[in-house]
Amino acid sequence: MVVLGTASQLPTRRRSHNSYALRWDDQLILFDPGEGTQRQCTRAGVSIARATAVCVTHFHGDHCLGLPGVIQRRSFDNRTTAATVKPLPIFFPGDGVQYFERLRHASISHDVSAVVPQPIDGPGVIGKVGDLTLRAVPLEHRCTTYGYRLDEPDGLSVVPERLAETGIGGPDVGVLLEQGWFDGPNGRVTRDDVTITRKGQSMAFVMDTVMCDGALELADGVDLLVSESTYLHEHAPLAAEYRHMTARQAGELAAAAGARRLVLTHFSARYPDASVMGDEASEFHNDVVVAEDLVPVAVPSRA
Q1: Residue 82 pLDDT more than 80?
Q2: What is the DSSP string of 264-288?
Q3: What CA–CA distance (Å, rounded) separates 244 from 143?
């Protein structure tokens, strides 16, 4: 995951508006493109033209003001190949269509972005991004807000010891895995004889919300949980007033949901050093990353 920005509400001298790019095999998914996303993508080496989906949690400015730049940059980069540009689905809360349209047509441009609006009208599976299943779940903020979860389908892993016992090797292994069986020197072998199920990986994006059932549902057992961490817990009343989470609550969320790695972001400008967020969350979870602008975050390796 490439962190493009980590600031909540207002950018600072050191933090751009929060914005994120997730590289997953052949997919590139942008989350909450705040103001400055186009420039941050350039600095981080992220090609907007190659984006395969955009997910917007809600229409507060720090989560969407970069959308016009993303759309127009995609058009510019694809201007010579407009006829073959693949559709770009943009997911967003359905009651915010008017805001989406204003952002999409914010200025004069030659639009060959192939944008496909995907308004969300309720929880559940809302689409596929390549082989990944994309799900949306309502969160609890001051306006309609959805969190997102991506799940990879389960795969198969070959158990070397089992395979060795069959006497099958070389290209024949590929035949066995593809067709499901192979007649080897020791008799017929099925794919199930030499493989075990490899659980697909998952990622959850929980932004601008209080602790709620929706956040727990999204984070359940994920490999990577990206969570807002706007305030320290000493400012919990302020967090509750503005419907945000504290670093402590993000740590509690990750622990309760069994997430493997927690990434804290969306920091209030009142904390110039965000490491204090990591210190607080780490009391409740043992794998915490404090996001920094333009610093990639590795997804935990497949188990």
Answers
A1: no
A2: EE-B-TT-S-THHHHHHHTTT-S-E
A3: 12
Structure tokens at 27: 């997919």
The confidence score (pLDDT) of residue 156 equals: 85
Is 121 catalytic? The answer is: no
Structure tokens at 237: 């009343």
Class of domain 2-154+199-290: alpha beta
* Average pLDDT of the chain to the nearest whole number: 95
What are the DSSP E strand ranges found in the chain?
Answer: 2-5, 19-24, 27-31, 53-55, 88-93, 115-120, 124-129, 132-138, 146-151, 155-158, 181-184, 187-190, 195-198, 202-206, 224-228, 261-265, 288-290
Q: Which one is catalytic: 26, 32, 62, 172?
A: 62
- Residue 303 binned pLDDT confidence (cut-offs 50, 70, 90): low
Q: Do 225 and 204 form a contact (C-beta atoms < 8 A)?
A: yes
User: Are 39 and 11 in contact, with CB atoms under 8 Å apart?
Assistant: no
Whether the predicted pLDDT of 83 surpasses 80: no
For the entire predicted model, the pTM comes to 0.91
14: left (phi over 0), alpha (psi -120 to 50) or beta: alpha
Q: Which amino acid is at 161?
A: E
Domain ranges for the chain, please list them.
2-154+199-290, 156-195
CA dist., res. 302 & res. 1, Å (int) = 15
